[in-house]
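just leaving the lab so this will be short. what follows is a protein written twice so to speak, once as letters and once as structure tokens for the fold. can you read through it and tell me how you think this chain folds. thanks a lot i owe you, the record is right below.

___
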Amino acid sequence: MSITSMFTAVSGMNVNGQALSVVGDNIANMNTHGFKTNSVVFGDIVSQTVGSLGIGRGVLLNEVSQEFTQGAFENTPSVLDLAVDGDGLFVVKKGNNTFYTRAGQFGIDKHGYATNPDGYKLQGYQYSTTGASSTVVNDINVASINSQPKASSSVTVYANLDSTATIPAAFDVATPETTSNFTSTITVYDSLGTAHVVNIYFRKATEAATGNTWEWNAVVSGSDNANSSNDQVQASGTLTFTSNGALNAESLIAYPTVGFDFSGGATLDQTIAFDFGESITESGGTGFGGTVQYSGDSTTSFLNQDGYSSGTLKSLTINDDGIMSGIFTNGQTKNIAQIVLAKFISQEGLVKQGNGLYAESFDSGQPIVTAPGNSGTGQILSNTLELSNVDLASEFVEMIIFQRGFQANSRMISTSDELMVELVNLKR
């Protein structure tokens, strides 16, 4: 009698015990973000063949495969909590070593790098200060990112100028309150991002049956003036209205000082255009879309300018394309980087490294690293984490099956032992 059955049963106990370890690992990681469940593949062992019959000698654990199915999503308050909706893995680096992961818990470290909790740096295309995207995948860093100032180049003023106003004396920058009818004040910015107040004084110049004419003078105070310690007119022009109050024509802007000369070391001769609305003559408009002249108090209805000061990073946003944008203290938004994803021909061939990381292997093939949405990769969800894809009910069923398999094989050893005892007793 052969005792092969005992060794066959031992192999069954070993394999089912290993399978239980895999199930235990799955259950233990059911709350691990980005974890992908493992499943076991058994294979039989053939020791000899008698005729057309193969006699086996047990079982082996042929493979522990990873199932890269999509896990459920969990909403979080952190914009740097990321999940991939579809195929693809985040690319992270530590030193010269590159790894891949579905666990998207990232933050900003003290050096400004986007990293996971273990210090692995998230990879992407960094944007330059001019807004150009790099074509080289590198560490994402937000340190020293700021928003450069922009000098004001245009001012828009919409107002109603009182048609019943009396004509004052010629405008005198020394006494603007008595030589003008109405004032609008706006803040503009120089090339260094410094704010300067400009007062726009409106003066009724002429009255006529066909319409009235108004003068305007943009005045810079002596404290902001690089040319003089006195207030100075640095831009001026005229506005002509029709008899029904529409803006008919605007004169060319005159710059008595060539341009605006603000103190503080900024670029001189700064040209700022003034827009009072769509005039009939110059813009082909109706004349009612901006500054008008009706009976009633003079009021400003709209003020705007296109400059801004410098700004520091206040918060981040990340869209579905993985573009990380910064919102700055000056109200501007600027692209900082685009997160990349890696796709493998065989994700199941990746080698587990622990902490939710995977490494490239011969079986996985080389990765395609690209922007989200390209080459079959999915989209990136911000304020979201991917949960594990462990199905607890299925794992309990698998656990019962492997447990019964272990028990059955142990019973096989007991049965084989009883047969051996009977064989020994034959000689009595």
